[in-house]
Design goal:
By secondary structure, this protein is an alpha/beta fold. It folds into two domains: 171 residues, Rossmann fold; 40 residues. 42% of the residues lie in helices and 19% in strands. It has ten helices and seven strands. A seven-stranded mixed beta sheet has the order 3-2-1-4-5-7-6, with helices on both faces. Helix 3 links the parallel strand 1 and strand 2. The chain is globular and about 50 Å long. It starts with 11 loop residues before the first helix and ends in an 8-residue tail after the last strand.
Length: 234
């Protein structure tokens, strides 16, 4: 059930549809970089838990956090049948309800591009145990202001229809295009610009020194950082 009272409520169903339909492409690079033997993992901005459930098959326990009650309502529905090792919490990454070094794996997909990186990356760094891994997947843009301009988002959604049809079939393409249009029209975007590739690389290199980067597809980047085993992670 979609709940009122949070800014993500108008797009929660659309987000869930897009995540479930495109998960094979959307999450492939992130899932490929999950190490073996992880006991405790954290999914930052878990949304409707489509990615969370896929990670759950690879780890002992995963905690999914999100600020949206509507998203978490869908997440609980999605996890009802196959989420025995999934814990879902309403929480903000700016003030996570966890002690330092609580997790062996911290992941975030398509969330940090709309958050200020300078205060957020140090929080993720503190949560990881020595020897653990942080995997961050974000959208980037060389022209970030276009992506926070409503007409451009609408045009982009319409232009995506042929590509979606080739990838997922005509029926799914129309549903996905409708979902993208709903998200473009209703937000909630625009307060924080997407990072440029250079800005994302610079911020991650500053707070997660030694991290490596993978370009999944145009407009997307993944940062992978392995915390030193013999050093403080602060």
């Amino acid at each position: 059930m979609i709940q009122r009272g949070d800014k993500f409520a108008p797009i929660a169903d659309a987000y869930d549809l897009m995540a479930r339909t495109t998960s094979a492409d959307r999450y492939a690079n992130l899932l490929d970089n999950i190490p073996d033997g992880v006991g405790r993992a954290l999914d930052v901005g878990c949304g409707s838990a489509v990615l969370t459930l896929q990670i759950a098959r690879k780890v002992g326990l995963i905690v999914g956090i999100d600020v949206s009650p509507s998203m978490l309502s869908l997440a609980r529905e999605n996890c009802a049948a196959d989420g025995r090792n999934v814990v879902l919490l309403i929480a903000d990454v700016a003030q996570p309800p966890f002690s330092d070094r609580s997790f062996e794996l911290v992941v975030s997909c398509n969330v940090l591009q709309r958050l200020p990186l300078d205060p957020t990356l140090p929080v993720l760094r503190r949560l990881i145990r020595p020897g653990g891994r942080v995997v961050i997947d974000v959208r980037v843009s060389s022209w970030p202001r276009f992506h926070s301009w409503r007409p451009w988002r609408v045009v982009s959604a319409l232009r995506s229809i042929p590509r979606l049809a080739l990838g997922y079939g005509q029926h799914s393409a129309w549903k996905l295009a409708e979902a993208r249009l709903r998200r473009a029209l209703k937000g909630p975007w625009g307060r924080v610009l997407l990072p440029t590739p250079a800005a994302f690389r610079d911020a991650c290199s500053r707070y997660l020194p030694g991290c490596r980067f993978v370009h999944r597809q145009p407009g997307a980047m993944t940062a992978i950082w392995d915390a030193p085993r013999d050093a403080q992670t602060r």
